[in-house]
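Why EF-hand domain-containing protein? Reviewers of the renewal asked for a concrete example.
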Amino acid sequence: SGGGLLAYGESVAPEEIITEKKKVVVLGTGWAATSFLKNLNNPKYEVQVVSPRNYFAFTPLLPSVTCGTVEARSIVEPIRNIFKKKKVDVQFSEAECFKIDAENKKIYCRSSLNNNLNGKEEFVVDYDYLIIGVGANVNTFNTPGVMENCHFLKEVEDAQKIRRTVIDCFERANLPDVSEDEKKRILHFAIVGGGPTGVEFAASLHDFVNEDLVRLYPGIKDLVKITLLEAADHILGMFDKRITAFAEDKFRRDGIDVKTGSMVVKVSEKEISTKELKSGGEIKTIPYGMAVWSTGIGTRPFIKDFMTQIGQLSIISCEQASRRALATDEWLRVEGCNNVYALGDCATINQRKVMDDITAIFKKADKDNSGTLTVKEFQEAMKDISERYPQVELYLKNKQMRNIADLLKDVKGDDKKESIELNIEELTTALSKVDSQMKFLPATAQVASQQGTYLATCFDRMEECEKSPEGPLRFRGEGRHRFKPFRYKHLGQFAPLGGEKTAAQLPGDWVSIGHSSQWLWYSVYARVLHWQRGGAR
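Here is what the prediction returned.
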């Protein structure tokens, strides 16, 4: 019988009989999840991917899809192509997770189709590890009328719908017996949000209208208007001021009406109401034909439920309920859960403060228990401190200090570095300002992609690092952390401004604006598209 075959030692190695693959469930097919799948190489895992979208979309090019500069099919890749040649066992289910049961390690899913293979619309998946990479919803800030009357730009379908609506607006305005005032309203395109997405869409729409549509609809070309609404004082607030100023000036020269200090408070079928923050909160109404909302990101409903659940299960994570995203530690583990990880737009890293651990740091560094730290003692612990608390390194860099000795000298005066000794109070003073360098990571594809790659590397080396931890010293507790914490490396950011001009801001305070930056933008995105598809061919 089949069972008898197992009696022979030569037939099956003992470890093959007892070894069972760990089940990894991945939620999502966006930047974070896809990067994790592409870089996971350990065949000891069984992977189940659950997502209502069976493809990866290169979202930075969505504004280009809205105006036909790029075809939708060129920025998507079937998710099965990405993992079909991998040694890891990966299965995909086109479904949406609507509930996570962290206590029992189960997720509850609803088929995106009519039913699944068993004829049921809902099913349950067990997991050993759960990777949450579902991205975020649009944040309407509870503004009345936004969901009912605005377009969004999060998915490929959104971009295609916007393109159809733009054409429809021109066709409606071109009909006979439509008054000139009505034509102006129909051909008024309002974009809410002066971030990278809103700015790029405004630029793409301007080029589309002036290079293509005016030739097809010459009789109404002078009635077209594009307005960009931003509540802050400037658009592209996360960019260098030189880029912000150039973008605003270029848009005004192009005829794009940039309204800063305009906060949208209501959207009806034909009008947008704004509160003018620069003029004492005056309410104004703007007639429009199409509105695109591209400001802020919100939390998906089942993630909100999960955050509430975590608050009930663990004291550690009771602050989750007040957040817009899942709080994780520096290893991307969801706080308050075992074996649950979150990355990308649905998560935020809750960085540890140096001041919270200053006593533990001092005790760990003071190896001779003398009650003071020498420069040598501190330098020996410095590598672990910098790995565990990245804000220390940032602080030294911003203060133009070469090393920790310069920081200690700053506290102790002109004593010789070798003779400096600090007690706990002096160490606290020396490090009291380093936590000011802590920043939340931006919700970008760049961050999500790096997090996915990092987590895949951790999973590949999980067993190895359990035996030989390679992370920083545990200042609270014994031994070392298994892995080095996630460290984001900012590679720069781009803002296409239309007319073959792009603004680029790269590390080292390097700013470039013009045609050369446009080609740099093209080359970077072409390289990333090749990266996403290269392993699947």
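Residues 1-17, 312-319 have pLDDT under 50 and may be disordered. This is the kind of structural detail the renewal will allow us to pursue systematically.
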